[in-house]
């Protein structure tokens, strides 16, 4: 079926999802039958065996990633949410990672409103506890992404957003504290935490945050520019640019509207604050100059090096002249453009989270279209982004659950089709496109 010329085929599922394996069948476009496969996958989340729940979550994540499952959410929202939360509470690290991703995808699907706010409220305690239950990088990164998405979509007031941002800050403390997680975070976790924190900062009014918080944030982020890991540097550079774009220089120096309690700094306090931030800005300019022309060393990734150089050229131009980077990408026959650091950070975060499903969501997900002011040409075919090597292995490996299930199903259908002169073997289960 992966080599078939039929572009309308989607999914075949096994008759018994409560067995040791969850059988499912996918084409290259990874489209799913909303009626049977997802129902069976959600039912499998009630199983006691962790491996069964993990396989069900893989099905759910793939379905929600590559199609916007609006109708399914209408019918199974509460069940799916609560079962995913149960997986986070009692599952393995892998299961927690899969379940947290599923919750993030669920929030993106429902969009802002009562359901998204319910996801945020119900998820906060399980997510916070899961951060403390182990230090595996992949799990922590998945939890960070989930917290960022559900807060971005479901946060109704600044206090809720600030609470999530504080959790993220505690994962990468600049100095030891009683509320900080004591395990030293990996570079990947630092990158994810800074990116998630910046992503939520794009939704905030900078004047709400205290000068002390700005000072701590800028000082810490500036220190990350000296780290060895280029991805850490890039995330910190984007975050710092966003802070300055928000006009937080005045807030940071304690001028203008005063501190968070309404008081206005007096005399030398204001001058000292302004001098301090000017010093940090000058330091950042020097760091950006160096990083924009850094030479590659032995074992250096050329892609990461180029990304770093290009990013800090933009940072340098922004800090010196006030010009934010302008970007554009093709979605089907349309162009999605950004012209601010805030938009660029949001775009990069959603692209990383959705991967190969980003183009499909931009075509069909009204919430994402509202975020970026993007209006697709409804009658154009979606231009799917290539799926990653990991996703290819998931769907095409001879040893994968998907491939074994496909082989079993095709053998069944061939047996049923004996004696029929169809001329071409194809399966269609009534998938309704969007």
TrEMBL record:
Domain of life: Eukaryota
Gene3D superfamilies according to UniProt: Leucine-rich Repeat Variant (1.25.10.10)
Pfam family, one: IFRD
Matching InterPro entries: ARM-like (IPR011989), ARM-type_fold (IPR016024), IFRD (IPR039777), Interferon-rel_develop_reg_C (IPR006921), Interferon-rel_develop_reg_N (IPR007701)
Stretches assigned to the Interferon-related developmental regulator C-terminal domain: 365-417
Domain Interferon-related developmental regulator N-terminal: 9-320
Family affiliation: Belongs to the IFRD family.
Protein's UniProt name: Interferon-related developmental regulator 1
Lineage, uppermost ranks: Eukaryota, Viridiplantae, Streptophyta, Embryophyta, Tracheophyta
